[in-house]
Amino acid sequence: MSNKEEIINLLNNINTRLINIEQRLDIIENKQNTIMNSASNMDNHISFVENVYETLKNPLNYVANKINHHIGYIAPVSINN
User: Is 81 helix (H, G, I), strand (E, B) or coil?
Assistant: First the structure.
């Protein structure tokens, strides 16, 4: 095999490996996009739960205190963060 053929074979090998690396990088990028979308959905859900909690915290404290007053428990109940 001549030097020229060896160089061509080497370049072909490098090109094949580069194509393989690019394909693997595409797969990683797709997985990263999926993870980012999932994280965004989790952030939205956490915000929703926090908003519901803040909205219901005081009414739940009121109801719990009324129930405790009727059953004779004196200490007020407070839902803390």
Answer: coil
Amino acid of residue 7: I
State the CB neighbour count (10 A cutoff) for residue 16: 10
Q: What type of residue is 39?
A: A
Q: Write out the DSSP string of 40-58.
A: HHHHHHHHHHHHHHHHHHH
Sole residue written with tokens 């915290």: 57
Query: Per-residue pLDDT tens for 23-79?
Result: 999 999 999 999 999 999 999 999 999 999 999 988 888 888 888 888 887 666 666
C-alpha distances in Å from residue 41, one per residue of 27, 35, 52: 21, 10, 17
Predicted TM-score (pTM) above 0.70: no
Q: Which of 3, 7, 4 is nearest to 15 (CA)?
A: 7
Residues 6+ apart with CB under 8 A from 68: 74, 75, 76, 77
